[in-house]
Every structure is written in C-alpha cells, then in structure tokens.
From TrEMBL:
This is Putative exported cell wall-binding protein. GO terms for cellular component: outer membrane. Residues 85-145 form the 3D domain. It comes from Acetonema longum DSM 6540. Residues 1-24 form the signal peptide.
Length: 155
C-alpha cells in the first residue's frame, strides 16, 4: 500500500514539476500584442538568374587521363578544361561561351563539346574519376545566360 501511494505521489510531483514553467508563465506565453496568424514569416526569395531555363540530362567527365588528377585536358575552344567550371554542351542548344547556372553546383562556362552531347544534354567537368562515376546521369534544371549578355544582367 505504501509503495503504491509513494508511486502515485512521485508521479504527481513529476507532473507538477513538468507543468510548473507553464503555470508560472515562463514558457508558451505570447506578448499581449502578438497576433500569431499575422506574424508568419515568408521565406526570403532566392534570386534566380535571368537566363533561359532548361531541363537537361547531365553527365560528367574528367579532363585528365584515367587515374590522374592533373594534366593538360583542353576544351573544344583550346582553353584548359577546369573542374567545376567547364561545361560541355551541344552548341545548337547552348551557345559556346554561355554562362550556365546550375543551382546545385554554381556557375559554369560552356566552352567544350562532346560526341555524345546532342540536344538538351550537358557534361560537367569534374576533378576525379570517383566524382565522375558517383555523379552518374541526372535530370537537372539549369539557366543559360548567352555570351553577349552583360555580366551584371545575369542576375
């Protein structure tokens, strides 16, 4: 009997301790002038580039020999293919020299082509074979800013 009474008393004390901040007004109290319905914060919009929006199939490549992490991999226009900056495109879809914004990766420059890059496809230049294989084939949303667009107009 004493054990049952002690258990009930212990539970009652724990409940009182748990609720005491609410009763004392320390938690869950809104200021008198607060209107929670009107104070819902809207997310701050992220600026989107003003380029042409495209949905593309994306793959990846490395500009180096297999197993190497440096070298002289050159893009179609003769410039070095720079990992995470160079993009291979079909020039009929994305003009060479265009700046391309990929939301997951940032800005790339379209200055390479590839025999398998036909239509709405892109090939991202990555640094290692592991990154390339891990990237696989993905459907992505991109924004294309033509080469003749002033840089300040890209955003």
């Amino acid at each position: 009997m004493k054990t049952k009474l002690a258990s009930c008393l212990l539970i009652a004390i724990l409940v009182i301790l748990a609720l005491s901040p609410c009763v004392a007004g320390e938690h869950f109290m809104l200021p008198p002038d607060a209107n929670p319905i009107l104070q819902v914060e809207k997310p701050t919009p992220v600026p989107q580039p003003r380029g042409r929006h495209l949905t593309v199939v994306a793959t990846a490549y490395t500009p180096f020999e297999p197993g190497m992490t440096s070298g002289t991999g050159l893009a179609y226009d003769g410039r070095p293919a720079i990992p995470f900056k160079t993009l291979a495109v079909d020039p009929k879809v994305i003009p060479l020299g265009s700046r391309v914004f990929i939301p997951q990766y940032g800005w790339f420059l379209a200055h390479d082509t590839g025999s398998a890059i036909k239509g709405p496809r892109i090939d991202l230049c990555l640094e290692t074979d592991h990154e390339m294989v891990h990237f696989g084939v993905r459907k992505m949303e991109i924004y294309v800013v033509p080469p003749d667009t002033p840089y300040r107009m890209a955003w």
